[in-house]
Design brief:
There is one protein chain. The protein has 210 residues and is an alpha+beta fold. The protein contains 6 helices and 4 strands; from the N terminus they run E-E-H-H-H-H-H-H-E-E. It has a two-stranded antiparallel ribbon with strand order 1-2. Strands 3-4 form a two-stranded antiparallel sheet. The radius of gyration is 24 Å and the shape is globular. It starts with 26 loop residues before the first strand and ends in an 8-residue tail after the last strand.
Length: 210
């Protein structure tokens, strides 16, 4: 006679439901400086590194942050042949969002007329125009200009009832891996690494601290 005892449940299930990963589907309408734009995701196509910039452009349009950034920019030109301040700052912003680390990388954006139109630019200027503009901008005025807009975006968060902490973990890498750079590495100085960022949020309930 065989007997199959009931196995004890060592890890009972919790109350949290299974969460499936969200996959973008269908057509999404975004508001840009060129007007409403329909964005459709195709899971079978190759990934483009610039495809999601249109979402940030909608944020700039809806929030008014881009117009405010241009409105009090300390950059001024006397020559009638100089590029527009909006085009210079817009090109600089697109270059940063594209992950560029050198002025020469701006050349890769000059053939992309869609990004310029979505951000409301007449054209994407050359790397020399951006370099000369930033060099001509007074350092104190430029730092104050950027800090002022950063404060306008972040100071409002200090009044919210939550606390967010960040923990960074340095992962040394061996061989050639994508995204590996030489930076702060206390265990293996001089070796390329990835830095993993973990954000912890606490105090979400009203009246409680974290």
């Amino acid at each position: 006679m065989t007997h199959d005892p009931l196995l004890p449940i060592l890890h009972p299930q919790g109350e949290q439901l299974t969460v499936e990963a969200a996959v973008p589907s269908g057509v999404v309408t975004l508001d840009t400086f060129a007007g409403p734009v329909k964005v459709e995701w195709d899971a079978s196509s190759l990934l483009t590194p610039l495809g999601q910039i249109v979402y940030f452009i909608e944020f700039l349009k809806v929030s008014g942050r881009f117009e405010a950034l241009i409105g009090d920019c300390p950059l001024a030109y006397a020559s009638p042949n100089a590029p527009a301040v909006c085009d210079v700052i817009g090109t600089w912003m697109l270059s940063v969002l594209a992950g560029h680390r050198r002025y020469a990388h701006i050349t890769a954006l000059r053939s992309d007329r869609v990004l310029a139109e979505l951000l409301g630019l007449e054209r994407i200027v050359s790397e020399d125009s951006v370099r000369r503009a930033l060099k001509a901008m007074p350092e104190a005025d430029g730092l104050g200009w950027l800090q002022r807009h950063i404060d306008q975006c972040t100071h409002a968060l200090l009044g919210e009832r939550y606390i967010i902490d960040i923990d960074t973990t340095v992962k040394p890498l061996y061989g050639h891996q994508e995204g590996a750079v030489v930076s702060y590495n206390p265990k293996k100085p001089g070796r390329p690494s990835h830095v993993l960022h973990t954000y912890m949020l606490a105090g979400l309930r009203p009246g409680t601290g974290g």
